[in-house]
Design a protein that fits this description.
Blueprint: H1 2-23, H2 29-49, H3 55-78, H4 84-103
Helix pairs in contact: 1-2, 1-3, 3-4
Length: 104
Amino acid sequence: MAWLLLFIAGLLEVGWAIGLKYTEGFTRPLPTVLTVGAMVLSVGLLGVAMKTLPVGTAYAVWVGVGAVGTAALGILLFGELASVGRLVSLGLIVAGIVGLKLAS
């Protein structure tokens, strides 16, 4: 169950990272409220997952899911560069997340 909560926390991290773009410097009320809500839920679920998972593993997976998801949505939503090097690097992060799961 902790791994599922950790994954959801990572997805919420993607949500707030992308949401920051839409807040326009926290000047738009609805995107701001949604972004802050995603931040609180993300960190809250991370904290719950850390009750049973090692802190280093949980934090690394949380950041990794957030980084990969945010970079992928940046490519899809904002037309950011999808170079081979960038995609390979994101793949390496995914491999690290899988490795941490298998090693724990």
